[in-house]
Amino acid sequence: MPQHLLTNFTAHIAGQQLFDPSQRILLAVSGGVDSVVMAHLFKQAGFPAGIAHCNFQLRGEESVRDEQFVQQLAVALDLPLYTTRFDTNAYTQRHNVSIQVAARELRYQWLEEVRQQGGYSYIATAHHMQDSVETALMNFCKGTGIAGLHGILPKQERIVRPLLFADKEVLVAYAALHRISFVEDSSNITDKYTRNFFRHQIIPRMQEVFPAAVKNMDNSIQRMREAEMLYQESVARHRKRLLFSKDNTFMVPVVKLQKTVPLQTIAWELFKDFGCSVAQLQQVLQLLHSESGRYVETATHRIIRNRSWLLVTPVAQPDAPVQVLDAAPAHVVYENGQLHVRQQERGQASIPTAPQTAWLDAAKVSFPLILRKWKQGDYFYPLGMPKKKKISRFLIDQKLSLPEKEKVWVIESAKRIIWVVGMRIDDRVKITTGTENILAIELKTRD
């Protein structure tokens, strides 16, 4: 019921231990009913908060209208306001990603910057029960496995979702009850996007047969979150029992794996991180009954039957020389072209958007810099993303072919990868408003 929303809201925050009532929370507010109601609930509850709004400049005058509405909302609620505008279309072309991915990366990168600079403990987004159910259903259809069936999590690192308990209809009813105005996003109407198709077509048809489908699925999602914890604990025990390493080789005892139940599930968890696809898993299991010397080659590794063991070794790649840059300025020639390194003051110049140029916060980078080819196990924090990502997965997301992947180089500083050369810098060394000096690295490719 809408009249109980505030009570349920504070109870959910306490029950999920999302944040302490004294902590300052940055609210991501689009102007839609969900985020506007969230802002009002924070004000009603007396939680210290600020409002952040992103204008992605994708809907013309409507985007400007939303920005102006949120400005008025912040004044009405007497909350600090932070706004920004993005050239989202340019970002999609520069990074070869979809509009949705671009908007998400730009949004969370900027929100995290504001959170840090503004002294906020967490970022709050207005995802609600239906959003979580839609996510779980889409993941189920994509075949993401058990990890995708927990829906949207209430808390992930510095992001909290205090409305996950709430039904969308209750949020709308609360807005009507308290005469809270909001704006409508026209892009939510079209079924062009997958989420909207599930929202407008799939779930309503399910509710025709099962009227309580959304609530029932949400209950199942919450149980799935706990089931996943048990699953991961079990996988960790099996991995400790079955996976051994020596130098650059991993070893799995054949007899122990043969006796493992459930075999396919545990085998998948063991070998998926070695480039094994779902289609290749059966070939790997056949190695349990083959003669010594047989092998399966995945995208990144070779899994070899060697007597009573399965040996997992990286696919051999020709060695490339490592180059060391001791100081700036510097100039180095390598197989992909030339790198020019210089240091300069921040000034008023705009940050270049070309992927061949990396501008880094010089205070966050230390010499010597190491230029080398990427290798399995490498990871970094891609610009605009709050979590680390293996470079192998990053290159898959970039849709690079195997020959293209083999030509990718990285630059290290203090054992941290700071640039996947010509592609993406590390979020930890990006330029912020506090940057005073820039380390500029420019790639000039061979003609």
Automatic annotation (TrEMBL):
One of its GO terms (molecular function) is ATP binding. The keyword Phosphoprotein does not apply. One of its GO terms (biological process) is tRNA modification. Coiled coil: none annotated. GO terms for cellular component: cytoplasm. Its EC number is 6.3.4.19. ATP binds at S30, G31, G32, V33, D34, S35. It is an enzyme of class 6 (ligase). The keyword Cytoplasm applies. It catalyses: cytidine(34) in tRNA(Ile2) + L-lysine + ATP = lysidine(34) in tRNA(Ile2) + AMP + diphosphate + H(+). Gene3D superfamilies: HUPs (3.40.50.620). Keywords: ATP-binding, Cytoplasm, Ligase, Nucleotide-binding, tRNA processing. Ligates lysine onto the cytidine present at position 34 of the AUA codon-specific tRNA(Ile) that contains the anticodon CAU, in an ATP-dependent manner. Cytidine is converted to lysidine, thus changing the amino acid specificity of the tRNA from methionine to isoleucine. Belongs to the tRNA(Ile)-lysidine synthase family. The N-terminal region contains the highly conserved SGGXDS motif, predicted to be a P-loop motif involved in ATP binding. This is tRNA(Ile)-lysidine synthase. It comes from Chitinophaga varians. The lineage of its organism: Bacteria, Pseudomonadati, Bacteroidota, Chitinophagia, Chitinophagales.
